[in-house]
Amino acid sequence: MWVLDVASIGTLALDGNPETERAIDALDEADPLKRLRGEFELPAGLIYLDGNSLGALPKRAADRVHRVTVQEWGQELIRAWVSAGWVDLPRSIGSKLAPLLGAGSDEVIVADSTSVNLFKCICAAADINKGRTTILTERGDFPSDVYMAEGVERVTQGRLRHRAVEREDVATCIDGDTAVVVLSHVHYRSARVHDMKGLTARARDAGALIVWDLSHAAGAIRIDLGAAGADFAVGCGYKYLNGGPGAPAFVFAARRHHATMRSPLPGWFGHMAPFSFADSYRPADGIARFACGTPAILGMSALDASLDVLQGVDIGEIERKGRSLGQLFIALVEHNCPDLVLASPREAEQRGCHVAFRHADGYAIMWALIERGVIGDFRDADVLRFGFAPLYVRYRDVLEAARVLHDVLTSGSWREPRYRERAAVT
Ligand SMILES: *Cc1c(COP(=O)(O)O)cnc(C)c1O
Known about the structure:
13 helices, 4-stranded antiparallel β-sheet, binds pyridoxal-5'-phosphate
């Protein structure tokens, strides 16, 4: 895979060297994705490097939510469930998403949150794999992935046991008692990528099922759940898919499990015939049984419109650009900001589309950056995260962000006490 060779931009100094400036502008000019930036509403003067936490607003999503609210909800009222196709959205958005995941159009549904979908998939997988007792997770993975495994242990009163192991031990700890393995394809802090194909094969060989969390991968890098032979997967709609704050999440289940899998949350929307109001639950066919309650149509509509931005876009180009932006940022920061320590893989192929650096005062530094118009975020203890959403971040933004970061560090402006006050959301 071709990823930017940073040597091609000349000097890495942030002194406005004309050769570097020209090289950066040439990269933006040659970017095959450059027209997509115009799809987004982006505040002037802001460099947004947090699309891995909350994707920017696609103009289409704003238009769509307005139409759904005023016309469909306002005028059609309850008739819109059918007349505007609301009732079909969970499945139709799932089909739209499927090619990005390497899934069949009948293998994906949009429903609930990623956290809730993790619970559903862990239970469904363990139910298929009766007789085995361990749910294996990676220590330090995203909290919900670990908490949900703990929760399943609790609700099964210990019949299923949760075991969290170090990242490097995951493969060897999958054994004859492992019912389910839960892993993130791209780690939320380090952006390190797991070998989906290798670990899925390892699980299969040991008779375990695997649930992949694609939250930081979907819409950022190439994913092929089908080729890997994955069993289940979940992921967020509001990160690189730009579905809006709290957008509904997705669930994938491989076709071979459709006939036997059971949701632990048998809500009426996953029933074979919801409007029969039957006295007992009969699951809908296939992936539809992973729906639970009434879908949140405003959020669904925003996600549906947002995914249209990705239609026809080569995910390989997205991956390549995201990693190139990251490569450029790493080179500029390491050259100019020696106090920051890289906490992501240096090799582009081992990363998703964000980059993490460590600094003991990372929290204050991030707030000083945000005040200067460069938005990234902060995670646990000392990690600064910078997301390079390939659809709207430019090489020019990377250069400017590195310049501001260098400025904040050398001026020491982050030392002001107000940057240390903890906010509720970071
Ligand atoms: C962001 C993220 C989530 C978020 O789950 P929600 O239920 O949407 O809050 C879950 N898993 C991973 C790996 C994430 O990065």
